[in-house]
Amino acid sequence: MPNYRRFTVPGATLFFTVVTDQRRRFLVDPPARSCLRQAIQAVQQRYPFDIPAIVLLPDHLHALWTLPHGDAEYSIRWRRIKEEFTERYLALGGVEGPRSDSRQRRGERAVWQRRFWEHTIEDEFDFERHVDYIHYNPVKHCLVARPRDWRFSSFLRWVRQGHYPPDWGSITVGTLGFEDLDETAME
Predict the structure, then answer these.
(1) pLDDT in tens, 145-177
(2) d(CA 27, CA 40)
(3) How far is 164 from 53, CA to CA, in rounded Å?
(4) Residue 7 binned pLDDT confidence (cut-offs 50, 70, 90)
(5) What is the full DSSP assignment across 109-125?
(6) What is the DSSP letter of 60?
(7) Residues 6 or more apart whose Cβ sits within 8 Å of residue 120
(8) Which of 46, 83, 130, 182 is most buried, judged by most C-beta within 10 A?
(9) Which helix (H) or strand (E) holds 54?
(10) Residues 6 or more apart from 115 whose CB is under 8 A from it?
(11) How far apart are the first and last CA of the chain?
(12) Residues ≥6 apart with Cβ < 8 Å to 102
């Protein structure tokens, strides 16, 4: 088995995607949201980090984190958040997915996918692009027509701070239907 290594930059800002096991859809349920908030806060007390932007969807989340100067240990933070969440969530009656033989041998619960995806933010343009991606994600997944209508996001905080107009990213449903396409568009 290959030895998986992650790229680390002390004090970096990073973009993350973290997914539930088998993409089970429970993260926006009230008990899960509460457990996740508590887990993040508990880990932040021991391992500080800032969260400039975040969105919580039913089966995954995206977040931007900024680590303290000289600190590159984001993997331990995610491991602890997943552990804290899982312990709290299952204690409240949350249900895990079926556990594979591999998970059983390792003593792992079937709540989160094992890994997460990360990207180190390279510059201001990259930062802005990922903030936009985070805030537009509920529209992309057809959960709402406007980012402002998704309650489980940092979007409204960014609007209050003047970074976005309130209608940023809104779509008008039905503005482009099949009747609007000519034959050349279908080729």
Answers:
(1) 999 999 999 999 999 999 999 999 998 655 444
(2) 14
(3) 13
(4) low
(5) -SSB-S--EEEE--SHH
(6) E
(7) 7, 9, 12, 13, 14
(8) 130
(9) strand 50-56
(10) 4
(11) 45
(12) 108
H or E stretch at 14: strand 13-19
Q: Which long-range contacts (CB under 8 A, 24 or more apart) does 56-59 make?
A: 56/27, 56/28, 56/152, 56/153, 57/27, 57/28, 57/137, 57/138, 57/141, 57/143, 57/152, 58/25, 58/26, 58/27, 58/28, 58/143, 59/19, 59/20, 59/23, 59/24, 59/25, 59/26, 59/27
Domain at 13-186: CATH code = 3.30.70.1290
**Helices of type H across the chain:** 30-46, 74-91, 101-106, 124-140, 155-160
Q: What are phi and psi of 12, to 5 degrees?
A: -75, 165
Residue with tokens 């050349």: 184
- C-alpha 18/C-alpha 111 separation (Å) is 11
- Domain boundaries defined on the chain: 13-186
Residue 153, SS3 per DSSP: strand
Count CA atoms within 13 Å of residue 132 on its CB side.
11
Q: Is the pLDDT of residue 112 over 50?
A: yes
